Amino acid sequence: MKKKIKREPVDIAANIVVAFFAILNLFPLYWLFTSSLKNSADVVKMPPDWIPKSPTFSNYIDVFQNQPALRWAFNSIVVSLVATVGVIIVSSLAAYAFSKLEFKGKNIIFLMFISSLMIPKEVMIVPLYRIIQNFNMANKLSGMIWPNVATAFGVFMLKGFFDTIHNSLREAAIIDGASEFQIFYKIMLPVVKPGIGALFILNFVQVWNDYLWQLVVGQEKSAKTLMVGIATLMQDLNPNFAYKMAGATVAAIPMLLMFIFFQQYFTRGITIGSVKE
Q1: Rounded Cα distance, 258 and 271, in Å
Q2: What are the residues whose beta carbons fall under 8 Å from the beta carbon of 93, sequence distance 6 or more?
Q3: Which of 187, 181, 193, 194 is nearest to 166 (CA)?
Q4: Using CA atoms, how far apart are residues 186 and 69, in angstroms rounded to an integer?
Q5: For residues 201 and 258, is the Cβ–Cβ distance under 8 A?
Q6: Contact 69/128 with Cβ under 8 angstroms?
Q7: How many CB atoms lie within 10 A of CB 209?
Q8: Using CB atoms within 10 A of its CB, is residue 155 exposed (0-12), middle (13-18) or buried (19+)?
Q9: Is the backbone of residue 177 left (phi > 0), alpha (psi -120 to 50) or beta?
Q10: How far apart are CA 133 and CA 172, in angstroms?
Q11: pLDDT in tens, the chain (277 residues)
């Protein structure tokens, strides 16, 4: 009982510190949103107004009226969603093969997969773009999607989840006459759902924020994604900072919603995949 009483002040102090840093991390988001509700002069005003005195949504109206922001948002959603689904399909099949199947050179091939993670994507920008040009995918959403499907991170991540499943489960299914694809689709895949959920979130965010590749491929205004389109607002000579803050807020909202609604799958997936029995 005494030990429990002694620990209470420590726990309270620790919770206060954690709460302080949590609020501190949320402050940039608060400042971004409140600045988007001001006029340009109030954004750079010193001392600043921590709470907008005359909040207005005119900056958001201007973003959607003067720029094809809805088209940019649609492009970003399509590119991120299709690329992520493709990564999950390809990575789950490859991870299952590396984890449960036996074939010659398996370890060497997997080592080559993992080694590719050490190569920055920026190094491959020029050859990738030449390939996209040869396939006539420049200024098209398909040119932003397919290079993001070929990634080794998903294979590496899901292999850890498949490794946690006992081989006796697969052996029992083989005895019952199940084919390899039936074992993968009906037995193994449902077990690794937390890992697939975590991979979905991580890859969706990565593709959504893939500014450099989307900038290189989507040169036409209709082919731009939300990240690239909003970045063009930042490069304008127009010093309307509140207008730019509104654009940045629009670009940040989808990612915030993604983590708010799917954070339980993300945390479960990361935790389960880190434990091997």
Answers
A1: 19
A2: 184
A3: 187
A4: 41
A5: yes
A6: no
A7: 15
A8: buried
A9: left
A10: 49
A11: 445 555 677 788 888 888 888 888 888 888 888 888 888 777 777 887 788 888 888 888 888 888 888 899 899 999 999 999 999 999 999 999 999 888 888 889 999 888 888 888 888 889 989 999 999 988 899 999 998 898 889 999 899 889 888 888 888 888 888 888 888 988 898 888 888 888 888 899 899 988 899 999 988 878 889 888 888 776 655 567 787 888 888 888 888 887 777 777 666 655 555 444 4
Name 165's Cβ contacts closer than 8 Å, sequence gap at least 6: 100, 188, 191, 192
Helices (H), 57-179: 58-66, 69-100, 106-115, 125-134, 141-149, 153-163, 167-175
DSSP-based three-state secondary structure for 49: coil
User: CB atoms < 10 A from the CB of 76, how many?
Assistant: 26
CA distance 203 to 87: 8
Structure tokens belonging to residue 108? 């060497």
3 state SS of 239: coil
Compute φ and ψ for 204, nearest 5 degrees. Answer: -60, -45
**The residue to which tokens 């959603």 are assigned:** 77
Kindly tell me the sign of the dihedral angle through the C-alpha atoms of 38, 42, 46, 49.
negative
Angle in degrees, 0-180, between the axes of helices 141-149 and 125-134, rounded to the nearest 10: 130
Q: Phi and psi for 173 in degrees, rounded to 5?
A: -65, -35
